[in-house]
């Protein structure tokens, strides 16, 4: 029974393109209506150093320099969502990386036409969630 499963947590970023486009409410509403709990929420503007830490696995990739410029280019909303199987649930709700290919009904499929400016980031595994939550919200530890 889902009600007996312990809650899991995921680090979710509503990226600078979503803030600039006035989509924070739309995206947060989807998560709230799904029944997920918001355990932390904060507006932040990233330094380059912090972006490098968050995207440690991507820093050597060719797409990283423009991704870094984008992610540090304006405020974003960082949140920790909690709920039963939240990591997988949120990944399903945001859709695949490239907004042009993401399924209709997902955040990216409905609202993004880019594989960089794709509105949302969400932890992709329990290990990533643990690492990302410790980085962004160490007080939740
Ligand atoms: P995110 O889920 O935050 O994880 C890594 C990010 O890099 C991804 O979303 C996109 O914003 C970006 N990204 C991944 N692949 C590409 C790509 N091929 N070209 C440009 N940006 C990318």
Structural class: alpha+beta
Largest sheet: 4 strands, antiparallel
What is the CATH class? Answer: Alpha Beta
Overall pLDDT: 96
List segments where confidence is low: pLDDT < 50 over at least 5 consecutive residues. none
Structurally, the number of domains stands at: 1
CATH architecture: 2-Layer Sandwich
The percent range for helix content is: 25-40%
Overall geometry comes to globular
Percentage of residues in DSSP E strands: 15-25%
For CATH, the homologous superfamily is named as Nucleoside diphosphate kinase-like domain
Number of helices: 7
Task: Note the gap between the termini.
Answer: 27 Å
Trace the largest sheet across and list its strands.
Answer: 2-3-1-4
The radius of gyration over CA amounts to: 14 Å
Q: What is the number of strand segments?
A: 4
Q: What is CATH's topology name?
A: Alpha-Beta Plaits
Ions and ligands = adenosine-3',5'-cyclic-monophosphate
N-to-C order of helices and strands? EHHEHHEHHEH
């Amino acid at each position: 029974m889902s009600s007996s499963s312990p809650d899991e947590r995921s680090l979710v970023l509503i990226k600078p393109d979503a803030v600039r486009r006035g989509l924070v409410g739309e995206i947060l509403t989807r998560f709230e209506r799904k029944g997920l709990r918001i355990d932390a929420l904060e507006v932040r503007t990233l330094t380059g150093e912090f972006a490098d830490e968050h995207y440690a696995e991507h820093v050597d990739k060719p797409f990283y320099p423009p991704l870094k410029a984008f992610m540090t280019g304006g405020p974003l909303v960082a949140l920790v969502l909690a709920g039963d199987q939240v990591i997988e649930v949120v990944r399903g709700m945001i859709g695949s990386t490239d907004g042009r290919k993401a399924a209709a009904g997902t955040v990216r499929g409905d609202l993004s036409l880019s594989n960089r400016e794709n509105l949302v980031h969400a932890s992709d595994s329990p290990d990533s969630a643990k690492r990302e939550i410790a980085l962004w919200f160490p007080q939740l530890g």
